[in-house]
Amino acid sequence: MDRPEDTWPTSAWGALANASVSLHTSLPTNAWWENIVLGFPSQETRSNNIVVIPYTFDVAGDTAGLRVHFPQVVASDLIVQTTFDWRHALQLGCVEKVTDHYITQPGPLSVTLNWDVAAGVTSAGAPAMSVPAVRGSPYATMEYRGVRPVISARQEVTQLVVDGERLSLSSGCENGTSVHVEREVEIIFSGGAVSSDDTWLVFVSHPAEFLCSSWFAMERGEPPTPGAVGAWQSMPRFRLEAVRAVSEEEGGVVRAAMVNTCTSGTSNRCTKPGEPDDREDYAKLLRAHAEVYPTGQARVSYSSSSLDWIEDALQAFTAADGLTDIGTPSLHGQAEVAIGNEWSMKVALPPVSFGVGRPVREEMVADVNEALDEDVKYEMPKNYLRGEGDSKFAATRQCSVLFSAADRSARQLQRIGRNNTPQERT
């Protein structure tokens, strides 16, 4: 198949793309993290997000790095989906210029996002920034080496609490005021049309000096209709910028966690409309477990359960075979007779095949070929080649041709083999 250049896997796939070429293997399809490697990294938008649970991640923020969204559920009588307001995200990035992101260690429960410094990897042999995106973790985690961390948002800050001490926003976070952080920063955003009424906890692995800034900037808002231009408006900004770079050898970590989505009662996520939610117990839990974080490469273990009935017996009978029962028919097969107090049922699954165990009737071959003519000439659209469409639609049309051709070829070879003598086959 001829592939346009802009549909080939980009640098966002990292070494995975190179391994696929050298080993002649396919890249993952419909992986939960795949959306963040589609297209060119420098052109990614908030549509290139991945659902990490409970957060949604993307890399389309103001600066290079991770943008963390806390989605909410929207439901109707026909659908249930999660959505987010991109303006309410918290960003974890750095001051220095870094390369586009790329992934390593992809798996069913985790993937690692990486950024190198512009000149290459750090002297410690590790990326400048790495995000172990692990599904189910209540924290977003960024590892740093040799760069200055930045925590930023596009919201107005109502309160800033550093290591338990509330700062004055007029003097403690204005135009690059120096702030010393030992362990944590609690960031409370105001509720309203632009801000979210959210509270975030940010933890640092090492004490550090940050420059704190909170200001408003003029920018164009969301356009009223597609293709239109949004009006200029004043938008809030917040930024914590580390003064010194994290050690390349030792490294450092910044972790962020959503604590409360209804801090003052102005949010539409409040348990009771108009009343703030009390999340102090949850905040204590996050503080207690902030030091240890998962890095992926999950190991799955499981155990089996046993079923043993309490039984009684008629005195006139002395049979020791125990209980006899009939298992209920299920998707696993027909009902089986089970005798005894312990049941063990093994089901041998047949190999999965896309082929059909019987040939196409000879009188129908011409009709089948005619029906497949349209699929033979099918050209896959670019969005499918890039992995942006639902692969089943394009793949079904191509697979129907491939498997039909393979099936007919195999059966033709079988007939040739039966009709030829050994001498003729040699």
- Count of helical stretches: 7
Query: From the structure provided, what is the oligomeric state, counting identical versus distinct chains?
Result: single chain
Residues in helices, as a percent range: 10-25%
**Strand-pairing-aware structural class:** alpha+beta
Determine the strand fraction and express it as a percent band.
Answer: 25-35%
Please give the radius of gyration in angstroms.
30 Å
Write down the secondary-structure element order: HEEEEEEEEEEEEEHEEEEEEHEEHHHH
Highest-level CATH class of the largest domain: Mainly Beta
Output mean pLDDT. 81
Q: Characterize the biggest β-sheet.
A: 9 strands, antiparallel
Terminal-residue CA separation: 34 Å
- Globular, elongated, flat, extended or rod-shaped: what is the shape? globular
Going by CATH, the architecture of the largest domain would be Distorted Sandwich
Query: Unreliable stretches, pLDDT < 50, 5 or more residues?
Result: 421-426
Fourth-tier CATH superfamily name of the largest domain:
Golgi alpha-mannosidase II, domain 4
The overall strand count is 21
What is the CATH third-level topology name of the largest domain?
Beta-galactosidase, Chain A, domain 5
The tally of domains stands at 2
Spatial ordering of strands, largest sheet: 7-8-9-10-19-16-15-12-13
GO molecular function, one term: endo-1,3(4)-beta-glucanase activity
Domain Glycosyl hydrolase family 81 N-terminal: 24-160
Keywords: Glycosidase, Hydrolase
InterPro entries: Endo-beta-glucanase, GH81_N
